[in-house]
Amino acid sequence: MRKRFVAATLLTAGLGLSSAQAALPVGRSAPAFTLPASVAGHAFTFSLKDALRKGPVVVYFYPAAFTPGCTIEAHDFADAMDRFHALGATVIGVSMDDLATVTRFSISACRSRFAVAADTTGAIASRYDARKTSDQHAQRVSYVIAPDGRILSAHQDRAPDSHIETALATLEKWKAHSGH
């Protein structure tokens, strides 16, 4: 176990990946989760474990559907989905909104291009150190998780636009160094 952690840490250090301001460190195993989710208005159960079998996963937490910053971020992720798919990545947005709200958000703001999940209790946001302590919202934090479950990058920034480019840069570096 220790050897794998050291190897993952060295790999990510060698890739120049960062953990800018986010609480979960690069190289750590990402907490597994299963949540109700929606894509293109269709509800389903999202499992991180199942998604990682297909390739890397970008998990991004956002404060609340239909707010200006969160809508901008969702539009930007939707616009970049071809780039994420070319890198073999799955994208999942997570908020503390209910399933009905994320279902509507999946169509309008996400433009039916990627899934969003309902973490109504905030338990998953808490496990990812992405929950605001003062209210019932998540912080704007994004993680890129390798197929082996290790965190490749963690990015926290209130500005929504930096999350997409940070995730894409991480995935490009990972792909170049992993041979995928």
From TrEMBL:
InterPro entries: AhpC/TSA, Peroxiredoxin_BCP/PrxQ, Thioredoxin-like_sf, Thioredoxin_domain
Broadest EC class assigned to this enzyme: oxidoreductase
Enzyme nomenclature, EC number: 1.11.1.24
Coiled-coil residue spans: none
Record SUPFAM superfamilies: Thioredoxin-like
Domain of life (superkingdom): Bacteria
GO cellular component: cytoplasm
GO BP terms, alphabetized: cell redox homeostasis; cellular response to oxidative stress
Catalytic activity: a hydroperoxide + [thioredoxin]-dithiol = an alcohol + [thioredoxin]-disulfide + H2O
Signal sequence coordinates: 1-22
UniProt KW keywords: Antioxidant, Disulfide bond, Oxidoreductase, Peroxidase, Redox-active center, Signal
Limits of the Thioredoxin domain: 24-176
GO molecular function: thioredoxin peroxidase activity
Stated role: Thiol-specific peroxidase that catalyzes the reduction of hydrogen peroxide and organic hydroperoxides to water and alcohols, respectively. Plays a role in cell protection against oxidative stress by detoxifying peroxides and as sensor of hydrogen peroxide-mediated signaling events.
Family listed: Belongs to the peroxiredoxin family. BCP/PrxQ subfamily.
Name under which the protein is recorded: thioredoxin-dependent peroxiredoxin
Organism: Acetobacter estunensis
